[in-house]
Amino acid sequence: MISDALVARLCDRVAASTSDTFSTVNVFTGGTLAKVPRSSPEDVAEAVEAARKAQQVWAGVAVADRIPVFERFHALLLKHTEEILDILQAETGKSRKDGFLEVSAPLVTVGHYARKAPKLLAPQRRQGMLPGLVKTRELRVPKGVVGTITPWNYPFALAFMDIIPALIAGNGVVLKPDTQTALCTLFGVDLLYQAGLPQGLLQVVIGDGPVVGTALVDTADYIGFTGSTRTGREIAARAGQRLVGYSLELGGKNPLLVLADANVHQAAVGAVQTCFSNSGQLCMSPERLFVHTAVYDDFVQRFLNEVKRMNLAAAYDYSADMGSLTSQRQLETVIKHVEDARAKGATVLTGGKARPELGPFFYEPTVLTDVTPEMLCYDNETFGPVVSIYRVADDTEAVERANATSYGLNASVFSKSIAHGEHVAAQLKAGTVHINDGHVVGLGSADAPMGGMKDSGVGRRNGAEGLLKYTESQNISVQRVPLTTPPRWLPFGWYVKSMQGLLRLIRRSNIR
Ligand code: NAD
Known about the structure:
This protein is α/β, with parallel strands linked by helices. The strands form five sheets. It has a seven-stranded mixed beta sheet, with helices on both faces. It has three domains: 4-250 and 463-472, Aldehyde Dehydrogenase, Chain A, domain 1, CATH 3.40.605.10; 254-449, Aldehyde Dehydrogenase, Chain A, domain 2; 487-512, no CATH class. It contains 18 helices and 20 strands. The relative contact order is 0.13. Helix 4 (81-92) runs antiparallel to helix 7, helix 5 (96-121) runs parallel beside helix 6 (155-168) and helix 10 (264-275) packs across helix 11 (296-308). It is globular, with a radius of gyration of 26 Å. Bound molecules: nicotinamide-adenine-dinucleotide. Nicotinamide-adenine-dinucleotide (NAD) binds at residues 149-154, 158, 176, 178, 209-210, 213-214, 217, 226-228, 231, 234-235, 249-252, 283, 381, 383, 409, 452, 457. This is Succinate-semialdehyde dehydrogenase / glutarate-semialdehyde dehydrogenase. GO terms for molecular function: oxidoreductase activity, acting on the aldehyde or oxo group of donors, NAD or NADP as acceptor.
């Protein structure tokens, strides 16, 4: 399905000077999928320099003239969706339904920034120090070369949702995808070049995080990172040494609240859809469900019914509701969390076992109750199809328990009353809160920033912040008449008095 010729063409895009390779896995079979080139730290340095050279020209292109490249990319994404899905499924093992949502996300990003970027990046007139006498403008200058580091779980969406605004803002980009999911990312990079992106502006390097990722963090002018909180901390420390900026999109242990006035059927269906998206390997997926006691029994019954109806399959069509976990490592984490919970007294309401007959890394959607703080899955991110349900007495208890985590990425609230849902949402410490949905509508509302509070991140993607973070603001102020140096003939004391008088007048008139 993925031809050798295609692999060779895509791998040509990787900045790698030796013939060293990595093997990637076909997740549905466990066999070898492809051999992808291995970059060295020297290749990273060269890639950054090449991107820098191309960036110096790109920065001189007017923002409005950059946009058509991304409009053409949008059209190419729509045209090639099925080919991208084939690669994405083979590399991640996700269901085609989940893949479709993933490939759609960058379409929203392109549409949003194509409309908003020219205005957001245009020079803005600001109030000068003194009206009429000082002219001040704020300019947005590209950072230079942005290093983008992405994980394996949503490799296509996360790469392009982040590099598109970086490129539109006038930067070059060096992208380091996770090795296992390099091909689908390279397919998108190839489409960007087909769409007319200037050669060299977007570079791809592949290699182990601590080697190639570190080399990128040590050379780029800004780091956009998505991955685990542990790696995020290391990157922040290194970037801090060089005083370069960064944004970090990290892990979560997301709560989903079913309030007493929820539409219980809608909550059960919505919870299944969000908890088991990409087999729970979604940073925004809820792993903790807090259900009001008045609707607890009804919710649990309906939720279990929906879970048991899910179709698990290694299928390259839209028949499967859930696919595979992506790796042996992820499967081992899931087994460890479930077995630990079981051994310490948790009840497994459904699931709780691997399904090797479907594929090497398949695991059933699993629902636990009686989970207590000693258990690993209580407050550690499982990143798999495992959720725990807790009964709560009222909204106060639900909010307190939802917030009792070091993470703060996403939360969901189900209630028939929008006002009630919004009231509870405002008390949750999470960068995104979805009402009557799990994770889709906030992600798709690209006009609003999203990201993590607490250990879930620093900075935001989407919205104005998701674009402006790739720029430096520059204040250009013009003194139209000499103000800051008094004439020689004027005693300085008189100058002080006249300036103070002026400041008083300005304050009284409330113009500054
Ligand atoms: P990870 O931190 O192990 O790896 C992420 C990327 O960083 C990979 O490309 C990896 O090669 C690279 N890397 C690893 N060590 C590095 C280092 N020392 N320096 C530079 N780069 C390094 O994370 P993962 O296991 O691949 O991804 C899963 C995690 O990502 C989960 O915690 C999940 O919640 C989180 N995630 C967050 C978001 C979000 O938007 N907040 C989205 C997806 C995934």
